[in-house]
Amino acid sequence: EFGVGKTTSDAEVPVIPIVGMGGIGKTTLAQLVYNDDKVAGFFDSKAWIYVSEDFDVIKVMKAVLQSVNGGVPDTNDLNLLHIKLKEELSEKKILLVLDDVWHDNYVDWTSLIRPLEFAKSGSKIIITTRNQNVAKMTGTLPAYQLKELAYDDCLSVLARHALGRENFDGHTHLKDIGEEIVKKCKGLPLALST
């Protein structure tokens, strides 16, 4: 599903945004894709970069280089880092996850993405974000929008975490408490599991 879609004409590497509120499961979904054996076999190299609110193009590029070749150039020169990243990625099909991106500055984004576009055909970039503007700016494919869980699914998640079962059958005396907890968690998987 993550490989289907239409890319923009000027982008070599498809960028797939996963969007949703905090605790909805964006990082968990990206981890499931990243760690899947079939996915791993498709790429020459993988890199997972936790970005958060402190978006620094040079730090992110160095982190990608560290993941791809194990070394980091001793420079903060953006142009030299671009060249090194182009060299490293031109022969590799890479899966890059940029987790928890908040920064929606177009100039910074284009500075980061430019060398990544030289990655071998078949490469993919997944971005997790709460910010719709980030998804619109970065995505070359439609954003994968995560929604809150349905009530019955919430009960199931809570039962699995609290009781090690799929539901409250056999523990009906706890179901009323479970239902109150589910209402307070408002469909967020992280809140339910916590």
Automatic annotation (TrEMBL):
Ranges of residues in domain NB-ARC: 11-162
Domain of life according to the entry: Eukaryota
BP GO terms, sorted: defense response
Keywords: Plant defense
Matching Pfam families: NB-ARC
GO molecular function, one term: ADP binding
InterPro entries reported for this sequence: Apaf_helical, NB-ARC, P-loop_NTPase
Alphabetical list of PANTHER family matching this protein: DISEASE RESISTANCE RPP13-LIKE PROTEIN 1, PLANT BROAD-SPECTRUM MILDEW RESISTANCE PROTEIN RPW8
Descriptive protein name: NBS/LRR resistance protein-like protein
